[in-house]
Amino acid sequence: MKPGVERDPGLQPERTLLSWQRMLILLAVVGLLYLRGPLEPGSSAVPEVAPALRVGVMAFTLMLGAALGLHLWWRWRSTGHGLRDPRTGQPPQNVASPWAMGLLSACVLALTVVVVTTVLVP
C-alpha cells in the first residue's frame, strides 16, 4: 500500500458480517434438510430418525441461528457498522464476540455427534 493512501476500514468488518450471514443461512438449510429426513422414503441405506428428534434438532438449530444473528446485529449496530468499538474508539477486534464463535463451534460439534449417532445406532 502506498504511503498517504487511506484504507477503508469498513470493508473488512462488512465482509466478516457477510460471511457470518452466509454461515447462518447454511445452518438453517442444513437443519431443514435434517428435518426433511431421508431423501428417498423407505430407503434402508440410512436409518429413519424419529420425527420428534428431527423437530428438536431443527428447533435447536433455529434457536442457535436466531441467537447468533441477534448477537451479530447488536454488535454491528453498537460498533457503528463495524467501524469503532465504543469502549476503545478503535476498530473492533471481531464482528462477533469470542463467546459466539465458541458457542457456534460447540453446537456444531454437538449436532454432528447427534447426527452421526442417529446413523450409527438404529
UniProtKB/TrEMBL annotation:
Residue ranges of every copy of the DUF202 domain listed in the record: 8-80
Keywords for the protein's UniProt record, in alphabetical order: Membrane, Transmembrane, Transmembrane helix
Localisation per UniProt entry: Endomembrane system
Major localisation: membrane
Originating species: Nocardiopsis terrae
Coiled-coil annotated spans: none
TM stretches of this protein: 20-39, 51-74, 99-121
Keyword NAD in annotation: no
Protein's UniProt name: Uncharacterized membrane protein YidH (DUF202 family)
Bilayer disposition of the protein: Multi-pass membrane protein
